[in-house]
Amino acid sequence: xxxxWWGVLTVCVGCYALKLAGLSVPxxxxxxxxxVRATALIPVGLLAALVAVQTAAGDREVVLDARLVxxxxxxxxxxxxxxxxxxxxxxxAATALTRLVT
Length: 102
Known about the structure:
Elements: H1 3-23, H2 27-30, H3 33-56, H4 66-79, H5 84-101
Helix pairs in contact: 4-5
């Protein structure tokens, strides 16, 4: 068996072990107030990190371009409580106009 298949097998065993470890956590720990609060905030942090990376990441450097303008317009629309679909259209239009001008 080649190195690639040993790697695939190792990842499979690791994923199964991680799943098994998650299932074996006692309910007392899972129902703790701090655990419930922390797990509710994890998706927010992951989404914020994803948006930050997709907005300002280049090949190996930070890039500030039209994507940042689009995110800025989306944040402004969010603060103004504009619904999602118009916010999406405004952010896309701002990004497109910025790319057109520059």
